[in-house]
Design brief:
The complex is a heterodimer of chains A (617) and B (166). Chain A is mostly helical. Chain A has three domains: 201 residues, no CATH class; 241 residues, no CATH class; 140 residues. Chain A is built from 21 helices and two strands. In chain A, a hairpin with a 2-residue loop joins strand 1 and strand 2. The radius of gyration of chain A is 33 Å and the shape is elongated. Chain B is elongated, with a radius of gyration of 18 Å. The two termini of chain B are 14 Å apart. At the A-B interface, helix 5, helix 6 and helix 21 of A face helix 4 and helix 5 of B. Chain A: Keywords: Cell membrane, Membrane, Oxidoreductase, Transmembrane, Transmembrane helix. Chain A: It is a multi-pass membrane protein. Chain A: It is found in: Cell membrane; Membrane.
């Protein structure tokens, strides 16, 4: 069996959380996270936890340099975030945080596609539950869209895995070709925020509670990057997708005024650097991408922690309302500035080091190199905007410093950001390829300072340009929702019209029946009735028990029937009017479902393409 | 072979999931008389065990690993792949689609029940233990049969073989 799987520590911890209350629970939660972090330091590279399952081997623990590297940062930041969110009282929050972190470790250590897929799906479900824990309308909707997007991605991934198994007969990770290659790339792209599969990220992250958004900002996307590093190193299209993501994210980040939305778009942008590094596939590229994973996790979670502390104290989230926090929350402000300098790639902070490595790897890809450089200008500008309008500018605001349980993790993370920048080779020992780069050369420093100086000057002189405005910048979700709206219209009009057409047809039949009953039948019945009555009176002399009475009853019921039919006809007429005036209400649950259905149609198309491929090949 | 195994295992798993769902729905109707989903907001507070069983069974129906429903889905997909006929690829697509469709049905219920505004007076008021016990056994079964697949497959593989060899 060998070593214990690190995810198991979190899963068992999650199961035990309900048995602790109050302070005991806090100590327990932090203790488990600490235990996982310390335990992780002692795991040797190995392959363990092999099981035979449905005729193939399942490997739960595949610890090599790559997975251990990601595992270390996941447990480290997991510990700090759990410390940061210790003030949350709900059991559910801690339980699902643990399950979420555990699932991400499961993805990282998965040694075969089956295990990988299982934890991949668990990651999506636990994240969606974490989003829902905010329990307001917006977060419920965002969580639903999040889950559906990830289930679609998971479905595509599952198809890819199955096709891969069909082609090769093995569940081992790697060795992808053809259609499974494309499907698995797209499936992973849903988590690694490939454009245009990224909409769940800026949609959901600003709408959850702030502790959850710190947590989410770390694991989901990085699990995606890890999967790319494991499966698709050195695929050119991936590298260029990284460049596109870096630019796309930064452009949208510049347009935002909601602080957490700005940071969310920056996740896309920074993940772009990692994807670019991994996609170039050289030792320097992969190492640069992965050390960017490490550094990004530190400074991005620090940024989310800072804005979380601000939300905790002021309950404000929007750059238009914030400002003047430097005096009131000095520790938070300093931590935020350190994180902003790191993400902007200013020496001597850690972002500078890993970005330099990615640039170095991109030396031979001119277009990509300039895409990334351009993105770094945008990053610097948007973080000038973030820190200036969010924290530094003069403004009256009510706030006080965040509690110690929040500031201590923030200080630790900020310290790690500086440490990583000052001693860049600390990471080198645990990186998969152990590449070393002397980043502090005169050329690199002047290059960077020139770039940043220019963008800083732009910000200084054109500050008004960056003034935050409350506006929504339409992203792909706008398109998706429009498509969904079109689909809704399609549902509403043809379906509803079809329904009313049926009504109308029934009404016609009913009318005909009414006419028939009224004219020939009624009059005939009445005539016959009368005739029989007369005859009966003549013959019997009494009305009782005669067959004529029965006939009369029949006529009476016929009349009632015709009355009912008349009513039905009137109803049909009314409905037809409502349709023409567009007042019908069709019971379709919400736009989300429709959005989802559109995605399903896309999926059908994808499968159709697969079929075509298989038939042709 | 896999297809037959998948069919048999799906009989077992589906019977557990569906009966858990029906028992949970029955317990809700017994306790509150509600039949409409729109009235179920906040019922997770009132009947936590029932809704937990319901959620586990629903997630299993969606084919979320590591629950029993996923094992059925996986084995059936394997069976479809084994034939190597492109026609059966459609069935894999349908399996995945049906999982997502199930998510559309079930996820709003779960969201409403646990995270919706609480509409109920009073706190915990779950169904009697005589109702809860069978439901909990079924939910436990869904989890156990999802993780320890050898339990069911040790019986199913011989059964499938016996069916194939007259």
């Amino acid at each position: 069996m060998g070593a214990i799987h690190p995810a198991v520590i979190f899963f068992v911890g999650a199961a035990l959380i309900p048995f602790f209350k109050g302070t005991g629970q806090r100590i327990f939660v932090v203790g488990v996270a600490l235990a996982a972090f310390v335990y992780m330091l002692f795991i040797e590279p190995q392959i363990g936890w092999r099981f035979s399952f449905l005729g193939f081997n399942v490997v739960l623990l595949n610890a090599d340099r790559l997975s251990l590297f990601v595992g270390h940062i996941f447990t480290l930041i997991g510990l700090l975030i759990i410390l940061y969110s210790i003030h949350v009282k709900e059991n559910e929050h801690h339980i699902f945080s643990f399950l979420y972190i555990g699932s991400s470790l499961g993805v990282v250590f998965a040694g075969d596609f089956f295990t990988f897929f299982i934890f991949w799906e668990m990651l999506a479900v636990t994240a969606a539950i974490l989003i829902w824990l905010k329990k307001d309308e917006r977060s419920l909707g965002a969580g639903f869209r999040y889950l559906i997007m990830h289930l679609i991605g998971g479905g595509i991934l599952l198809m890819g895995i199955l096709l891969h198994f069909l082609a090769t007969g093995s569940m081992e990770i790697g060795g992808l070709t053809g259609v499974p290659f494309a499907l698995i790339l797209i499936g992973i792209g849903f988590k690694a925020t490939f454009i245009p599969f990224h909409t769940w990220l800026p949609d959901a992250y600003p709408k959850t509670s702030f502790t959850v958004s710190v947590l989410l900002s770390v694991f989901t996307t990085k699990a995606g990057v890890y999967a790319l590093a494991r499966l698709f190193p050195g695929i050119e299209i991936v590298a260029y997708m990284g460049g596109v993501m870096a630019l796309y994210g930064v452009i949208f980040a510049l347009l935002q005024s909601n602080a957490r939305k700005l940071l969310s778009y920056h996740i896309i942008s920074q993940v772009g650097y990692m994807v670019a590094g991994v996609g170039m596939g050289t030792a320097m590229g992969v190492d640069g991408g992965l050390s960017h994973v490490w550094n990004h996790i530190l400074y991005k979670s620090l940024l989310f922690m800072c804005i979380g502390a601000v939300i905790y104290r002021t309950e404000k989230n929007d750059l238009t309302e914030l400002g003047g926090l430097a005096r009131k929350m000095p520790i938070t402000t300093i931590a935020c500035i350190i994180a902003a300098l790191s993400i902007a790639g200013v020496p001597p902070f850690n972002g500078f080091v890993s970005k330099a490595m990615v640039y170095k790897a991109a030396d031979y890809h001119d277009v990509l190199y300039w895409m990334l450089k351009l993105a770094s200008v945008g990053t610097f500008l948007s973080f000038c905007k973030f820190t200036y309008f969010g924290f530094l500018r003069k403004k009256e605001i009510e706030a006080r410093e965040a509690p110690l349980t929040m500031t201590i993790p923030m200080i630790i993370v900020a310290f790690l950001c500086v440490l990583g920048g000052v001693y860049p080779n600390l990471l080198g020992n645990i990186l998969p390829y152990q590449s070393e780069l002397h980043v502090y050369t005169l050329g690199k420093l002047t290059d960077t300072m020139l770039l940043l100086g220019v963008s800083g000057a732009i910000f200084l002189f054109a500050r008004r340009l960056f003034e935050p405005h409350e506006r929504e910048s339409p992203d792909f979700d706008y398109l998706y929702i429009r498509v969904a709206g079109g689909f809704m219209w399609f549902c509403r009009n043809p379906v509803s019209s079809f329904g009313s057409l049926i009504d109308l047809a029934y009404a016609r039949v009913a009318k005909g029946f009414i006419w028939f009953c009224r004219n020939p039948v009624s009059s005939l019945a009445a005539g016959v009735d009368l005739m029989f009555a007369r005859v009966a009176r003549i013959l019997v002399g009494t009305d009782r028990y005669s067959p004529m009475i029965a006939a009369a009853r029949l006529a009476h019921w016929m009349d009632r029937l015709s009355l009912a039919a008349e009513k039905a006809a009137a109803r049909g007429e009314e409905r037809r009017k409502m349709v023409t005036q567009g007042q019908t209400k069709v019971d379709v649950r919400s736009i989300d479902s429709a959005l989802f259905l559109v995605a399903v149609m896309l999926l059908i198309f994808l499968v159709y393409m697969t079929l075509v491929y298989i038939l042709a090949g | 072979m896999s297809g037959l195994q998948g069919a048999i295992v799906h009989i077992i798993h589906h019977s557990m999931m569906k009966s858990a769902l029906f028992l949970a729905a029955g317990a809700i109707i017994y306790k509150t008389g509600i039949r409409g989903i729109d009235k179920m907001a906040g019922i997770g507070k009132k009947m936590p065990v029932t809704m937990l069983v319901f959620s586990i069974a629903a997630l299993s129906m969606m084919g979320i690993p590591p629950l029993a429903g996923f094992i059925s889905k996986w084995t059936l997909a394997m069976g479809a792949l084994e034939t190597g006929e492109p026609v059966f690829m459609v069935s894999i697509l349908l399996l995945i689609l049906s999982g997502i469709m199930n998510a559309i049905y079930f996820v709003p219920i779960i969201i409403k029940a646990y995270f919706g505004a609480n509409e109920y007076e009073g706190g915990y008021d779950d169904a009697p233990p005589s109702m809860l016990l069978p439901m909990m056994i079924l939910a436990l079964g869904i989890i156990i049969f999802g993780i320890f697949t050898n339990l069911s497959f040790s019986a199913i593989i011989p059964a499938a073989r016996a069916l194939l060899e007259p």
